[in-house]
Amino acid sequence: MTTFVIVHGSWAGGWYFHDTARLMRAAGHDVYSPTLTGIGKRVHLGHPDVDLSTHILDIVNVIKYENLQDVILVGYSYGGMVTTGVAEQVPDRIAQLIYLDALVPENGQSVADLVPGMVEALTQVAQEFGDGWQIPHDPPHPQKTPHPLKTLTEPVELKNPVAVQLPRTYILFTQNTFPFAPLLASTAARAQEEGWTYRELAVDHTAPETHPEMIADLLLEFA
CA–CA distance from 42 to each of 9, 64, 137, 169 (Å)? Predict the structure, then answer.
């Protein structure tokens, strides 16, 4: 049995991976898909100071207090920011990192650094429609909740030499059409240059919602 912890992206929640997790559990593995503070079913816990460190601590505490070892830590989309920070804090608990069509920050980078211009626009949206600190999902979605702005502006600090040595995989969704698809493609290229394991899926960025079987099958290759 392999233990997976899957971290969702912005505006979503653990629900985004429920079908994937169910299929993986049916194959005999232990799968956690927690929801980050201030989003999804934990939206009521949101406040203006929820930041990237809050979300990193969410996942660190799942690993610590569930006493998880040899974790395959999966970060999807914005979740790659979170898993990168988690690996920095508890590398001894992690067997490998998988970035699932995800952002991969370097030391001192935030989402704002990785996607220039986007966060400025979202800040304006938050000021107009989210009390200055929440970014509503556009278009409206019955399960997608506003995302805390500070999580996109706080940089991640990477100084742990043990974390650097962890095995890493990048999985690129090749049918993306949204504005920052080129960023993910260039991130995938950099991962390959650095010798990471690399895979592709011919799906778009919503695949965890629309193609959970494909996601589960690919992740199970690493079990």
Answer: 14, 20, 16, 29
pTM greater than the 0.90 cutoff: yes
For residues 51 and 151, is the Cβ–Cβ distance under 8 A?
A: yes
**CATH numeric code, 3-110+154-220:** 3.40.50.1820
- Given this model, what pLDDT does residue 92 score? 98
Amino acid at 212: P
Structure tokens that stand for 94 in this block: 């992690």
Please classify residue 4 by burial: count the beta carbons closer than 10 Å to its beta carbon, then call 0-12 exposed, 13-18 middle and 19+ buried.
Answer: buried
Give the bridge partners for 100, in sequence order. 76, 171
Which of the residues are catalytic?
Answer: 77
pLDDT in tens, 78-112: 999 999 999 999 999 999 999 999 999 999 999 99
Q: Tens of pLDDT along 114-167? A: 998 888 899 999 999 999 999 999 999 999 999 999 999 999 999 999 999 999
Residue 159, exposed/middle/buried by CB under 10 A (0-12, 13-18, 19+)?
A: exposed
Beta carbons within 8 Å of 116's beta carbon, 6+ residues apart: none
209-213 own/partner pairs: CB under 8 Å, 24+ apart = 209/16, 212/17, 212/19, 212/20, 212/23, 213/23
Instruction: Give the amino acid at 77.
Output: S
Contact call for residues 183 and 114 (beta carbons, < 8 A): yes
Cα–Cα distance measured from residue 130 to residue 46, given in angstroms and rounded to the nearest whole number: 12
What does the block give as tokens for 148?
Answer: 């805390």
11 has which bridge partners?
Answer: none
